[in-house]
Amino acid sequence: MPQLPDVPLNGLYGASIMDHYRNPRHRPPLASSDIECEEFNPFCGDRIILQIKLDDAGRIAQISSRSEGCSIIQATASMMGEVLLGKSLEQAAALDHAFRALMRGESLDQESAPELGDLVAMQVVREYPVRIKCALLPWLALEEGMESHESGQAGRD
Ligand code: ZN
User: N or C: which end of the chain has fewer CB atoms below 10 A?
Assistant: First the structure.
């Protein structure tokens, strides 16, 4: 496996990343799910299995965000689980866009910045392009999971 640059995890943002890495939220698997997707990044051995259970109103009622690999993906998966809970899939897609904008170094509008919660800490990864992939892998799982969920819905009509 190639050696990837280490992101320095000091300061307030670093502490937040280490906290989620050491105490990951939303790890237990769900018995049943409406959305499920697995992604793998062979460059650093990162893996994510995302499961989402929707309620009758189409909101994210339960989420399982299981990851293995580096500290960046494990912390992102945990933070993502926290911000997505209770959201509609439309809101989840908006958060995905906001997070990608943050990782591109764009300034966030006043609405989406607070919505990202602990995820704002991930901006420390911006200087390390190969590690940005680690932070985006859980979101890729979300996008692909939502996409196949949508096409499944369309097929049922
Ligand atoms: Zn990684």
Answer: C
Q: Is the pLDDT of residue 154 over 90?
A: no
Of residues 21, 52, 34, the one with CA closest to residue 135: 21
pLDDT at 22 over 80: yes
The CA 85 to ligand 1 mean position distance, Å, reads: 24
Q: How many residues does the chain have?
A: 157
Each residue's pLDDT tens digit, 97-130: 999 999 999 987 777 778 899 999 999 999 898 8
Q: How far is the CA of 43 from the centre of ligand 1 (A)?
A: 8
C-beta atoms surrounding 80 within 10 Å: 32
Residue 57 CA to ligand 1 centre (angstroms):
35
| 147 Cα to the center of ligand 1, angstroms | 24
